[in-house]
Amino acid sequence: xxxxxxxxxxxxxxxxxxxxxxxxxxxxxxxxxxxxxxxxxxxxxxxxxxxxxxxxxxxxxxxxxxxxxxxxxxxxxxxxxxxxxxxxxxxxxxxxxxxxxxxxxxxxxxxxxxxxxxxxxxxxxxxxxxxxxxxxxxxxxxxxxxxxxxxxxxxxxxxxxxxxxxxxxxxxxxxxxxxxxxxxxxxxxxxxxxxxxxxxxxxxxxxxxxxxxxxxx
Length: 217
Ligand code: SAH
Prior knowledge:
There is one protein chain. By secondary structure, the protein is α/β, with parallel strands linked by helices. It has a domain at 56-205: Vaccinia Virus protein VP39 (Rossmann fold). It has six helices and nine strands, in the order ααββαβαβαββαβββ. It has helices at residues 4-20, 28-36, 68-78, 95-101, 114-126, 163-167; strands spanning 57-60, 63-65, 85-89, 106-111, 132-136, 149-154, 169-179, 185-193, 196-205. Strands 5-4-3-6-7-8-9 form a seven-stranded mixed β-sheet. A two-stranded antiparallel ribbon has the order 1-2. The radius of gyration is 16 Å and the shape is globular. 43% of the residues are buried. The chain binds S-adenosyl-L-homocysteine. S-adenosyl-L-homocysteine binds next to β2, α4 and β4. S-adenosyl-L-homocysteine is lined by residues 59, 63-66, 89-93, 95-96, 110-113, 116, 138-140, 155-156, 208, 210-212, 215.
C-alpha cells in the first residue's frame, strides 16, 4: 500500500497536470516549483486530505490559502527570474512564498497577523528554504527596508494598486495583484518602465481584503 507521503506526491503531480497544465500554465519553472512544495504542510490539519483540490482552503485566523490555479496564473504572469528579489504581500501560510523561493534569488514575505507569520516561518524553515524572510506588519506600504523589488505579488485585494508598491519597484519591474471593490476584483499586472506605468487587467477574481494604510482601512 502507498504511504501517506506517496499519496501526496501522486496527488500533487495530478494537480499540476489537471488543474495547471491543462488550463494553460506552461511555464516549466512554475510547474516545477509546484512539484517541489508540499501544499499539505501549509493548510489546517483538518484540510490536509483536501490539499490538492483546486480550491481555496482555511489557514486559520479567518484567512485562506488561494486556489492553486490562481496562484499559478499569478506566478506565470509575474515572470520571476532566478536573480530577482521578490516581495510577497499577505504571506499567510507561506505557501506562495515557498513557491517563490524556488523561482527567485531572495523573497521577502509580509504578513499582518503575527500567529500566521510565526507558523509560516516554522514551515518554511522545516522545508530548508533559506532565501526567504517573513516580516510582520502592514504590507500595503510595501517593505521599504529591502526595496527595490524586481517583482511584487499580493494574495489580498486593495481598492487599487498601492502607490508604495510602484515606488518600491525596480525599473522594468512587475506587480501582479488583485484590486477593486470588496466583493469581486480583477487581477492586475503593472509594469514600470521609467516614469511610464503600463497596466493590464487579466481576469475576474475574489480575494480577501488587504487591510492597511494603502488598502482597506
Ligand atoms: N498567499 C497566502 C495566502 C493569502 S491570504 C498563502 O499562500 O497562504 C491573504 C493574507 O493577507 C492573509 O493572511 C491576511 O492576513 C494578509 N493581509 C491582509 N492585509 C495585509 C496587509 N496590509 N499586510 C500584510 N498582510 C496582509
